[in-house]
Amino acid sequence: MWQLYQFPLCPFSRKVRLLLGEKSVGYELIRESPWEQRDEFLSMNPTGRTPVMKHSERDIHLVDSVAICEYIEETVEKVPMINGTAVNRAEIRRLVSWFDEQFYGDVTAP
Predict the structure, then answer these.
(1) Which of 10, 2, 1 is nearest to 108 (CA)?
(2) Residue-wise DSSP of 13-62
(3) Of the N and C termini of the chain, which has fewer Cβ atoms inside 10 Å?
(4) What local confidence, expressed as pLDDT, does residue 30 receive?
(5) Structural domain range at position 102
(6) CATH number, domain at 10?
(7) Span 23-69, pLDDT tens digits
(8) Could you tell me whether strands 2-6 and 27-31 are parallel, antiparallel, or unpaired per DSSP bridges?
(9) CA 81, CA 69: separation in Å to the nearest integer?
(10) Global confidence as pTM
(11) Cα separation, 43 vs 72, whole angstroms
């Protein structure tokens, strides 16, 4: 089963949780407080940022919400979240990136 190392107020973690829910992917939530800089977490992601997703049985370790979401989108066929032409998919990705950064800067960082 997937383990999602995340912080509840992190917009990047929230995006991954929403995608996993939409695609009905089972996972275990593991709360990670990034400011604690735990050695175990830093060994998975040296930047110390959430989210990180891990599947021990499959030996898969994913870091960063963009990489995690694209992996899930590519490997779970149920409910495609990004479809249409390559140009449309690029625009969707641009808007998601813009929202992530704006939300973090305006809401989470302060």
Answers:
(1) 10
(2) HHHHHHHHHHTT--EEEEE--GGG--HHHHHH-TT-PSPEEEETTTTEEE
(3) C
(4) 97
(5) 2-108
(6) 3.40.30.10
(7) 999 999 999 998 999 999 999 999 999 999 999 899 999 999 999 99
(8) parallel
(9) 10
(10) 0.85
(11) 23
